[in-house]
# Entry
Amino acid sequence: MLFNYSNKLKITLSALSLMRCFIGDFMKSNSFFLSHKKMFLGIALCFLAFSSFAKNIKKGSAAPDFSITLSDSKTVKLSDYRGKAVLLHFWGTWCPPCRRELPGMENLNKKIVADGENSNLEILAVCISDTEKNQSSFMKSNKYTFKTGLDVSGDIAFSYGVQAVPTSILISPEGEILATHAGMMSESQIFAFVKDYVK
# Structure
């Protein structure tokens, strides 16, 4: 059976998310790291293997356009939001750091909705290496309202060189990459990340 990109992405991102959990929750003493150094080395090698074929997205480069079907069954393109900045957010229901970050993302979305037509920002979340059932159930159970769709093939994540989740990418109203952030952000960090486009 072919080992496709989506499978490689899931394994790599799962490993990286697991590593973040260990770092955040357990690496408070050198003894833990030393006793698990083989595990951390394995995760690092997995990351390097994935990095060798992931694309690089640079600040100032054009954001690759794509289409995605949202959880409300509406299909949109990134270019549909031209004229507004876009916070492109890659996440997964299986990712513990993503789960901890999403309440802040939801609060930002509430701010955007409250601003209405005066808002200069849109959130477009891309759920990767997952199923529609998991995504839908997760969104409903947490009462999240931000726009999200499933990257079924992994092509969107690949086109943006995503090497870890969560990953956030800020795209200008003209469609250029302004900033990228790999890893979990606090709510204040999320708002700071998009501060030029939120009143």
The mean pLDDT is 82. Residues 5-25 form the longest helix (21 residues). The two ends are 51 Å apart (CA to CA). Strands lie at 67-69, 75-77, 85-91, 121-128, 147-151, 167-171, 177-182.
